[in-house]
Fe2OG dioxygenase domain-containing protein (Riccia sorocarpa), 360 residues
Amino acid sequence: MAPSPIDVSADAKRVVPMSVMKLADEAAPLPAKFLKKASERPTTAHNVFCKEIPVISLEGIDSPSGRERIVGEVRDACAEWGIFQVIDHGVSEELMRKMMENTLSFFKLPLEEKIKYAAKPGGFPVGYASGSHRADDDILDWRELMSHRCLPKDVRENDYSLWPDQPEEYRKILVEYSDNIDRLVTLLLAVISESLGLPSDYIKNAVGGESAEQKILLNYYPQCPQPDLTLGLRKHTDYGTITVLQQDEVGGLQAYKEDRDQWVTVEPISGALVINLGDQIQILSNAKYCSVEHQAVVNSNQTRLSLVTFANPNAMAQMGPAPELLSDSNPAKYRRYTFKDYLPICFAQKTRKHYDALVI
Ligand SMILES: O=C(O)CCC(=O)C(=O)O
Ligand SMILES: [Fe+2]
């Protein structure tokens, strides 16, 4: 008997047990595999937006007074929120729109086509997955995802077999987007360095300069028959340096405001990009800044897309609190490590606060 077209390998079968998009079309009730524990279910709706999360214009970054304002606003946003939005950031709205269109076209392909790019289980997914990319997950997330290793360039070039050849412009647009977001990341790392009183190139150098890693993750959250009982993406912190997130107009990204014990929903602002601090900034800043816990909620009548760029250190980068920030009154809170050793901690430990494993 000819193998079924989706039966591409034992690994792929484990990673892509079903299409969440297809389940969404079949409507209620929510399959039990997606039922989150009561303590993990959403408490704030996808469309109740928090107006306090800072929105920072990067216009004027090249003038001394503009830069001073931006560094000050970024310092406050990092210390108070760990998440903020940027506008006037130099990534064109046309490119952002094309990325959204291409991503949507990819997810609309038949499952047989998407599964050609199925991610292997374990670690950070590379390729397509649905519900979860972990082989051992009991409760799944209500999302499909597609993910690519984009930088450094030699990694990207080795990875093209997992880059779809349709829609036609997918690869070209993704490369352009990757390069544009990388420029923005370089700028933001300079501003964050300055906001900590460090030289502009400090963090960029600490994470491996031009050898730093970039991954782009595309999330598709179908409409969900019972959104109160599940999540599009469970709560976590991002393990890398910083994350740049483009979301559509639906809303669903939520950040946990620890001092208020409250989940707040990030308002979708056309043309804006959301910036999340990752664990590496928390550790490098010796917890002056914190990586924010966040999650994605879903809703019953709209699908949602988010395009997420992770700027991570190079695997061999030596990470730890910046010695320049330490003193007798501010001793190191975390031990030093090689970034490649951080990932197994993240994926072995099912808790969200991976950096706890490094606390001195
Ligand atoms: O879709 C979102 O808004 C959140 C995505 C996210 O946090 C992630 O992919 O790490
Ligand atoms: Fe995240």
